[in-house]
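In the design runs reported in the main text, the only information available to the sequence generator was the tokenized backbone. The following block is the verbatim input for one such run; it is reproduced so that readers can re-run the procedure and compare outputs position by position.
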């Protein structure tokens, strides 16, 4: 596998071509952004943590029948994944009120829902990722009805698997964002990452935040929180 030219640089990752047209290499950075790039910083060691955690969780999900883009981890920060066209939807699952949900609906954080919720945002930096419903997604041609149905079913399945997994290591999965992609043969697979950048993770006993909210809200202890998640998951 040869790492060829850079195809794309996002806020947290770079993507490189390989000598196989169906595979790319993702390279995780320590760069952190929040509020659509308005706040910038560095979380030392984040790239390594997010790479390893994402790969581990994607492999657990594969075992549970969720197809993902994961192929092979090739270094601390680099992973070979299937080349996909990203469906331009951020799919957010919530088990407990927090963040923009609490703000939008004027409720406190920490309300445990009877059933998880799903919502979509349109992945668009210039528009600031506006919230949309699935009719809007259809109208804009972002996905087909069948793809949206598949995406919702997969997202709830991911929630079941991850919620149970994190509960075992004393972490409450509050909410998270997923992205899906389409492979060259038209199959929808889970893509992007699953990490403390994209999940809200609270210590089950103390309620302490172990995720990017520590960076967003200038709470300090950001690196320690990411490392604590690593320790819980990998026992080191
Ligand atoms: N999230 C994300 N990327 C985004 C927006 C949200 O990974 O661009 C994640 C976020 O970390 C949280 C969940 O999605 O786990 C729900 O985020 P919310 O809508 O509450 O937005 P926020 O308060 O983070 O702006």
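Verbatim output:
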């Amino acid at each position: 596998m040869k790492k060829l030219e850079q195809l794309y640089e996002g806020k947290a990752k770079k993507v490189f071509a390989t000598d196989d047209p169906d595979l790319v290499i993702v390279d995780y950075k320590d760069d952190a952004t929040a509020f659509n790039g308005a706040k910038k910083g560095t979380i030392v060691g984040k790239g390594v943590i997010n790479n390893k955690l994402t790969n581990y969780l994607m492999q657990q999900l594969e075992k549970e029948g969720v197809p993902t883009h994961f192929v092979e981890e090739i270094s601390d920060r680099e992973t070979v994944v299937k080349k996909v066209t990203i469906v331009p939807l951020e799919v957010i699952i919530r088990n407990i009120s927090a963040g923009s949900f609490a703000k939008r609906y004027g409720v406190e954080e920490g309300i445990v829902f009877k059933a998880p919720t799903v919502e979509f945002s349109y992945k668009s930096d210039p528009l600031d990722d506006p919230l949309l419903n699935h009719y809007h997604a259809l109208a804009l041609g972002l996905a087909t009805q069948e793809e949206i149905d598949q995406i919702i079913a997969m997202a709830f399945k991911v929630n079941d698997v991850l919620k149970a997994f994190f509960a075992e290591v004393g972490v409450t999965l509050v909410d998270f964002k997923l992205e899906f992609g389409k492979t060259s043969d038209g199959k929808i697979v889970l893509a992007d990452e699953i990490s403390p950048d994209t999940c809200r993770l609270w210590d089950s006993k103390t309620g302490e935040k172990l995720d990017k909210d520590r960076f967003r809200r200038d709470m300090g202890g950001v690196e320690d929180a990411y490392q604590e998640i690593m320790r819980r998951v990998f026992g080191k």
